Amino acid sequence: MSWFKRIESGLKRSIKREMPDGLWRKCDGCGEIVYERVIQRNYWTCIKCGHHFMISGRDYINMLVDDGTFEEMDACLASGDPLSFKDSKRYTDRLKIAIKKTGLTEAIVTGKGQIGGHPSVVGALDFKFLGGSMASVVGEKVARATRKALDEKCFLVLVSSSGGARMQEGILSLMQMAKTSAWLARFAESGGLYVSILTHPTTGGVTASFAMLGDIIIGEPGALIGFAGPRVIEQTINQELPPGFQRSEFLLDHGMLDMVVPRPEIKKTLVEIFDFFSEEKRQVQEVRKPAVLKTPPSIEVRANRHPGEDKQLPTK
Fold first, then answer.
1. If pLDDT is split at 50, 70 and 90, which confidence band does 294 have?
2. C-alpha–C-alpha distance, residues 72 and 138, integer Å
3. What are the chain's domains?
4. Which residues in 68-91 are b (16+ Cβ under 10 Å) and which e?
5. Are 125 and 132 in contact (CB under 8 A)?
6. pTM metric for this prediction
7. Which of 66, 143, 219, 305 is least enclosed by beta carbons within 10 angstroms?
């Protein structure tokens, strides 16, 4: 068996190296394995096919807002359990899991910052928190963000990524549709500019309320945007839907969106919009500003005198 020993001693064992998690990601669009840091540098889009990955609300805000200018608002607000709801799990348990998973207290992050030097109030939904569903606290934070923009006369930007209203809060979640819409109507009446950014997916009660009420509505490429899902609509109307139905490009062609902008270009687009409306606002103010006409001093003196004072009095 000496020959076997000689062969065995000459064998080289391969050392298995464990790959750390989070270094690579498989693209849902093209199936390619892409380096995570490259994806982040490209604003969380695939360098191969341009697929837009789902990102957190904080990451989206950090992408839009100028460095060091964001101040979060109402971070302490958290949902309760008004209906003592329970399905397969208790609602309170679901909230605890979502809070631990995302580090958020609710499905939206709001705050004030600057976008290209323009003071703005920004809010972004996070789909990882119970599907970005709109609960009472989400509606309250959107309302407070709108009021902040109204009081400080600055721009308002809301980024949507949601499955709709949160069923665990029943009618209370549906009431947030009217609440947010009413505040946005008040903001519009004051002359404020609201830009709504729709990402994949934006559906249900969020689409039926504040997501589609923007003065300018921007959709990300390929985003699913609608109220009910395509399968539900097909079963309801018993008709086959056209290709690309409810995708942002389809909605753009049918007048539901103002523009479809790739994620790396969204901040640049916002700055251009804000620059335009800021300049237009200044021009309007200059036109409406009442002109101050200065009367020549000689006329002012004559106007302050009584008739006949210019005549020379007779001397005795």
1. very low
2. 14
3. 54-285 (3.90.226.10)
4. eebeebbeebebeeeeebeeeeeb
5. yes
6. 0.82
7. 305
